[in-house]
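Record type: ASSEMBLY
Status: queued
Input:
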Amino acid sequence: MNLTFLVSGILFGIGLVMSGMTNPQKVIGFLDVFGSWDYALVFVMGGAVFFNLVSFKFIKKLNRPKLGSSFSWPTKKDIDKNLIIGSALFGIGWGISGICPGPGIVNLVTLDLKALVFVVFLFIGIYIFKMVKSAFNL
Amino acid sequence: MNNILYPLAGGLLIGLASTVLMLFAGKIAGISGILAKILDPLSINKSMSIFFVLGLLLGGTFMKVFFSSFFSYGLDSSYVRLAIAGIIVGFGTQLGSGCTSGHGVCGLARLSVRSLVATLTFISFGILTVYCLKVLL
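Status: finished
Output:
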């Protein structure tokens, strides 16, 4: 199981770098639709979603994963306040930095201290959420 | 052409990566969720999450060593800006139960309306933020 996660992570990391998602300027260019829009990253999500559309269709027919006991398909369906506010906040942070969680981690390999600062504060944000969640029963 | 070819190839690889995780482990490749499990003292999936992050770093290192031209960019934002963004991204992805990978890549492929709403929301707010920062700064 650990090996599956390792292999998936390696492929994911290579894909993120190759696609341009780890380059903050590229991401901000993609989000700059009212300026000089760089549409290239549309093909990243397009390619990834297309691949999974096909593969998930087949995987859904299986009774169990090859190495695990059961599939953990998400079951939540409700579109609630948390989903909207959380996604909006994520979008704001993504727009400020041009970095989302995966590329944030991958950028650590640049050995740029700034990449580390982003990741440390990313974990602080996750930690704050955990504190707020247990305090307010979110 | 390269400006479309590499994003497409990278996207397909990201698809393959999340397919591998679902096919073999039965898990959604949601990176913000995987990161949260590392901080969770009660998580039973902690070692798997650590292996995934290790994989991300190995994949990135592989590209840096053999295809260094992909790393010709720099992180231009100031430390303060990156710190603020990091906190907001960390908090927001937990409250919204996902980021570009979980909602975007996996959720859309599952045809989940919840993930579609989340994806449209974070892309819209990303666009709005980039626009506002450009006008203000």
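Annotation: The first helix of chain B runs from residue 2 to 25.
Annotation: The mean pLDDT of chain B is 96.
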